[in-house]
Amino acid sequence: QARELFKQAIQIFERLGSRLEQGKALYYFGQAQMAWGEIQPGQESIGSALQIFQACKANYWVAKARELTA
Question: Model confidence over 36-60: pLDDT tens digits?
């Protein structure tokens, strides 16, 4: 159920045009995926979040995402 709620949140933020919030949702989804043992999908989610953070010039979040993808 958590997986579906994350996906819904990501879609809602996308529809609203809330790019930074969409990135945060992707970031936390990626963290959860990695905790569930889904390393590759988790890294992909965090990579998507990183792209959004860079586009938004959200340096704090860029640094956090890079920590998890290093």
Answer: 999 999 999 999 999 999 999 999 9
